[in-house]
Amino acid sequence: MFPQRLDSPQAYGIAKAMMDGFNRHYRLFRAESARAKHRFETADWHAQQRAQRERIEFYDLRVRECVHRLEKEFHASRQPMDVWQQVKLHYIGLLVNHHQPELAETFFNSVTCKILHRTHFHNDFIFVRPAVSTEYIENDEPEALPTYRAYYPAPGQLHDTLLRIIEDFGLQRPFVDLRRDTGYVLAAMQQRLANVTLRANFQLQVLSGLFYRNKGAYVVGKIINGYLEIPFALPLLHDERDAAGRLVIDTVLFGEDDLQMLFSFARAYFMVDMEVPSAYVQFLRSLMPRKPRAEIYNALGLAKQGKTLFYRDFLYHLKHSSDKFRIAPGIKGMVMLVFDLPSFPYVFKVIKDYYPPQKDTTREQIKAKYQLVKQHDRVGRMADTLEYSEVAFPRERFTDELIAEIERFAPSQLEISDRDGDGRQEVIIKHLYIERRMIPLNIYLQEAFDTGLQDARVRQQMEHAVIDYGNAIKDLVAANIFPGDMLWKNFGVTRNGKVVFYDYDEIEYLTDCNFRRVPTPRNEEEEMSGEVWYSVGPHDVFPETFGPFLLGNDAVREVFLRHHADLLDVAFWQSHKERIQAGHVYDVFPYDPERRFCHLHAA
């Protein structure tokens, strides 16, 4: 029971110190996000990438700072539980009129769980559910920007409105020809609205902050006409053909599917300056209603809030389902033990305690690989992961086969007990990763073979998968990533048919690899040898040897060689490595390059 009176002098001080810690965190987070505008204007791509990596570490640093202060000033871990009950009540009071209450609640949970023992996780000492609503929050200070701007074009004035939308962002770098580019956007919008009567409420609503990622900035908004709402986004890029590096609107994206690709879980996080993040999330959900709020928070760089919402969604799903966790179907990995819940669209991955001899690695090295992916530009080709520790599941929801599998391969990560003292056994996993579930590419292709490639639709699906597999590898190469193990089973197919890589225990930076040709045999004995007779260093890669492992099926081999034979040539890999080492940052577009205005309007 919560106390009826707040009589602890320490409780308010602890709550205020925690709020100070969160406010410092979000102030620094916003400042780094706001600086993305200058880095974009000055084309400082390496600094942009570095900032994206470093910003991910901000949260944990601020949590540690706050814990240190609370221990130093209040001996927080030695305070009795009735004081902690009062701390939460004081903190709720401090959330009133706060512009980021949901993030502040998550920060409170993070700090509290560092200080208190895990047995207090599920009671009244943390925010299991939100205590403060995030609806209709706005910053009412006179100089504050609104969450979004609404534009009401007069008849025949839509082009001028589009010009004003871009100009209102105040970019300090000129465009090559903004009137030309907005003309292209206008033509695309008119085509989209062809034969549509413009209603009295016809307007464009545009989020006030630009979304920065890698070498692009994105205008995000929606067209409203009567009951019709059409999401859109305008990518702004530096024109690679312009000697002065002036800006262009590269294309226009329309509809939920285009926006889903832009905000994909397989891409790096955006940098966008938000006073009220929940208002941004609410606006974005109106554009992408199928996208979970957790993934939108992740896409905005607010990964801890994404984890909080994901876990709440997961607990809600557990409560309203009855199926059991099982060993995930497919070929078992040598490093990861993977299980899933059939009714839940995610997989759970646990690092095994030991690995076959050919896997020369450690738990720490594997965790470092996953952290590399978290911090790196995933270019739409590497699945984001949520990392959790000490996760408790109901024992009755686990199959006995799965328990036996964990006991056999990852016993150090398993505890079965009644930690909470409620009389129910729990399966507690010490450390795991959670990823979106995809169809493993090897299973996807095998289903096509089983159905029969004489079916034109099935053959087209197979060809698309093989072509996109090669495109996925090339996108990873452009991002300075060598996937290591390129077997089909390590790639998955998303619900949109996109091929994504998800097995990270062997990835390396491309620039750390040594790409070699297989030496010419010096004699007949070497030529006939079934063993590797030449020396191989720890970072040596021989692209011409990929074929026998990947192209055993004749139909797959024909499609692959027609589109991606260069992946078997050492020159392809070496040239990309040299360009990256020279400082070049490749463009990887979150849309079909054929949709770029420079291609559509080449004449």
Automatic annotation (TrEMBL):
InterPro entries: AceK_kinase (IPR046855), AceK_regulatory (IPR046854), Isocitrate_DH_AceK (IPR010452). Signal peptide: none annotated. It catalyses: L-seryl-[isocitrate dehydrogenase] + ATP = O-phospho-L-seryl-[isocitrate dehydrogenase] + ADP + H(+). Residues 15-322 form the Isocitrate dehydrogenase kinase/phosphatase (AceK) regulatory domain. It is found in: Cytoplasm. Its EC number is 2.7.11.5, 3.1.3.-. It comes from the Bacteria. ATP binds at A328, P329, G330, I331, K332, G333, M334, K349. Keywords: ATP-binding, Cytoplasm, Glyoxylate bypass, Hydrolase, Kinase, Nucleotide-binding, Protein phosphatase, Serine/threonine-protein kinase, Transferase, Tricarboxylic acid cycle. GO terms for cellular component: cytoplasm. GO terms for biological process: glucose metabolic process; glyoxylate cycle; tricarboxylic acid cycle. The keyword Hydrolase applies. The keyword Phosphoprotein does not apply. The active site is at D384. Residues 323-592 form the Isocitrate dehydrogenase kinase/phosphatase (AceK) kinase domain. GO terms for molecular function: [isocitrate dehydrogenase (NADP+)] kinase activity; ATP binding; phosphoprotein phosphatase activity; protein serine/threonine kinase activity. Bifunctional enzyme which can phosphorylate or dephosphorylate isocitrate dehydrogenase (IDH) on a specific serine residue. This is a regulatory mechanism which enables bacteria to bypass the Krebs cycle via the glyoxylate shunt in response to the source of carbon. When bacteria are grown on glucose, IDH is fully active and unphosphorylated, but when grown on acetate or ethanol, the activity of IDH declines drastically concomitant with its phosphorylation. Belongs to the AceK family. This is Isocitrate dehydrogenase kinase/phosphatase. The lineage of its organism: Bacteria, Pseudomonadati, Pseudomonadota, Betaproteobacteria, Burkholderiales.
